Amino acid sequence: MMKYISRSLFLLAILVIICCVLYPLALWVVGQTLFPFKANGSLVQGPDGRLMGSRLIAQPFTKDEYFQPRPSAASYDASASASSSLAASNYVLRDRVARSLGPIVKYRSGPKAGQLVAPDVESWFRKDTFKGQPHIVAQWADLHNSLAQAWVKADPLQTAYVENWAKVHPDQVDRFIKDNPETPQPKAADLAVLFFEDFSERQPGKFLSFVEKKDAAGQTVKRIEPVNAGSDIQSIFFDMWREEHPDADLQDVPGDMVTASGSGLDPHITLQSAQFQLHRVASKWAANLKRDPNDIRREIESMLQECAAAPWDGIVGEKYVNVLDINLELHKRYGAP
To answer: Which burial class, exposed, middle or buried, applies to 5 when counting CB atoms under 10 A from its CB (0-12, 13-18, 19+)?
Structure first.
């Protein structure tokens, strides 16, 4: 009996050594010898030798000087790879797409052909009337209270702003508790709709947004202040503007600019999407460098063509651009924004 057990243990030990030691070791040696860059995660370093990211995983770029990746349902977190799984009828998806479109979409025809819609969204918003009724912000919060609550919870500064409002307006909080006895101790998010209704009456034609200012020590600090223009208004209220302007002929936008990938980590965008962003990127760099925008545009367009690739060396599929690669090329050529 012991003889069979010892043989079985011997065979098990051999299998463990082969499968758990020799095989992984062989793969490691082959990977480190033949293609170490890919085997180590395709990590990319910047001009200063500092690690900038991986060519395989998307990361957010928010500065106007850089090309921006696809939206991510995982917030670009590699440990939380996921799709949104939102149906086409889900308003959360509609809102996310509308927010992506607001600052970038342009008129396709008419006297404003080729111009951004965003300035008209801001002008319409400042009139503070939606479907003949005043107070756009209050209507937005009433129609989509989950979005209003999401705004409050999106950032600690926004949560604190509403909490401070609640302390200054105890009568409003008492009214909420009376109307909602099941919530005797409301949190900031619970008060979102009430807060925006009050804000809309006190600050017509304005919304709250982050503003950077210098403090007494000369440090740049981020604050929340009422504004009547900016990307927040362009994005959050684009859908309501579109409802009131259904006949506006707008340009089509590349699908990957407003839809998340299945993983939420796709590091590529289509060449078409990159070219759609080209005007913004080139204009910003031209302003920073005080150079002719047309010259900058030609240079960046040439860089895009050099970075663009397609599956099987272009035999099939649409051309795409790795966002990290093209942004590093911009950084190498023009420096830090």
So the answer is: exposed
**Which residue's entry shows tokens 């008209």?**
120
Determine the Cα–Cα distance for residues 330 and 65; give it in Å rounded to an integer: 8
Contact 276, 95 (CB under 8 A): no
Is residue 281 a contact partner of residue 300, using CB atoms and an 8 Å limit?
yes
**Which alpha helices (H) appear in the chain, and where do they start and end?**
2-17, 23-34, 36-39, 91-101, 118-127, 136-143, 145-153, 156-168, 170-179, 192-202, 231-236, 238-244, 271-289, 293-307, 311-314, 323-334
How far apart are alpha carbons 196 and 265 in whole angstroms? 34
Mean pLDDT score across all residues of the chain: 89
Quote the tokens at residue 200. Answer: 């809309």
Q: Quote the tokens at residue 219.
A: 């440090």
pLDDT digits 0-9 by tens, 71-98? 888 888 888 787 777 777 888 888 888 9
Q: Nearest-CA neighbor of 56 among 37, 75, 71, 73?
A: 37
For residues 224 and 165, give the distance between their C-alpha atoms in angstroms, rounded to a whole number: 13
Q: How confident is the model at residue 133 (pLDDT cuts 50, 70, 90)?
A: very high
